TrEMBL record:
Keywords: Ethylene biosynthesis, Iron, Metal-binding, Oxidoreductase. Residues 146-252 form the Fe2OG dioxygenase domain. Coiled coil: none annotated. The keyword Protein biosynthesis does not apply. It catalyses: 2-oxoglutarate + O2 + 2 H(+) = ethene + 3 CO2 + H2O; L-arginine + 2-oxoglutarate + O2 = guanidine + L-glutamate 5-semialdehyde + succinate + CO2. It comes from Undibacterium oligocarboniphilum. Pathway: Alkene biosynthesis; ethylene biosynthesis via 2-oxoglutarate. The lineage of its organism: Bacteria, Pseudomonadati, Pseudomonadota, Betaproteobacteria, Burkholderiales. Its cofactor is Fe(2+). GO terms for biological process: ethylene biosynthetic process. GO terms for molecular function: 2-oxoglutarate oxygenase/decarboxylase (ethylene-forming) activity; metal ion binding. This is 2-oxoglutarate-dependent ethylene/succinate-forming enzyme.
Length: 279
């Protein structure tokens, strides 16, 4: 399976991008409008934030905003071991650490704007018989939604004392419509192809990785597949380094009907319970 990067400036970018999403569950964009300098600022200052005890002042609330320590990190569906990571949930309305700048909030705004455009691309290139099943245009599903989530992820260096079989991120699918992910500070992201083989996702700095979540899979009746992916544990010298990742999870409003089986709200609550982050 080959995930071919698409130049955002290409006049035919929308078709090529959505074709990649349909065929692989992933799309990779180059020359996109998100600022690499802004991303570099976020990577550096949040890396420093995660090295301090200040993060513990912002433990997540019942609204799921704030800091999640490694001890309460996610457990992927079907796995017994928690992922080797800590993370912070950033919402414009949520608690936000004073120890960092507003760069992440600025990125949230720019990323959400681009993601809305990408959803429109998906809408435009959805076959008519599939599109007819959408309860509303895809871009309308996120209008006025306060659930779109920017997660700042820190995968700490490996010490050798990790539990057997514990990994940075076990194989999983995302919950939302689309996930927009700038290339992280370290490689390791892989996708499970239709050939049932794991494939590396291109992750050169400057690339933007976009993958389909379960909600778009549900709404499109599988035309856009929510592809299983994982983050491998590094080896050698790379194992001694942190990895910072910045996924933006595009979420509909809770009342949005995805299918006869689910609204966005019912689907989200079911998945959060499966992940072990909500009872």
């Amino acid at each position: 399976m080959l995930i071919q990067p698409v130049d955002y400036r290409d006049p035919d970018a929308a078709r090529k991008f959505t074709e990649s999403l349909h065929n692989t569950g992933f799309g990779v964009l180059t020359n996109h409008p998100l600022s690499q300098n802004l991303l570099n600022t976020i990577y550096q200052e949040w890396y420093e934030f995660f090295q301090t005890d200040a993060k513990n002042k912002y433990t997540f609330t019942e609204k799921m905003d704030g800091y999640f320590s490694p001890k309460i990190s996610e457990t992927a569906k079907g796995y017994a071991k928690r992922d080797l990571k800590e993370f912070y949930h950033v919402y414009p309305w949520g608690q936000y650490p004073s120890e960092v700048s507003k760069a992440a909030l600025e990125y949230y705004e720019h990323g959400n704007k681009l993601a809305t455009e990408l959803l429109q691309w998906v809408e435009d290139y959805t076959p008519a018989d599939i599109k007819a099943k959408y309860s509303m245009p895809l871009s309308d599903m996120i209008t006025d939604s306060d659930l779109t989530l920017l997660r700042v992820l820190h995968y700490p260096p490996l010490t050798g004392d990790e539990e057997p079989d514990a990994v940075r991120a076990a194989a999983h699918g995302d919950i939302n419509l689309l996930t927009v992910l700038p290339a992280a500070t370290q490689a390791g992201l892989q996708v499970l192809g239709k050939d049932n083989t794991w494939h590396d996702v291109p992750c050169d700095f400057g690339m933007l990785i976009v993958n389909i979540g379960d909600m778009l899979d549900e709404a499109s009746q599988g035309y856009y597949p929510s592809t299983i992916h994982r983050v491998l544990n590094p080896t050698g010298e790379e194992a001694k380094k942190s990895r910072i990742s910045l996924p933006l999870f595009l979420h509909p409003r809770p009342d949005v009907v995805l299918s006869e089986r689910h609204t966005s709200g019912s689907y989200l609550q079911e998945r959060l319970r499966e992940l072990g982050v909500k009872k």
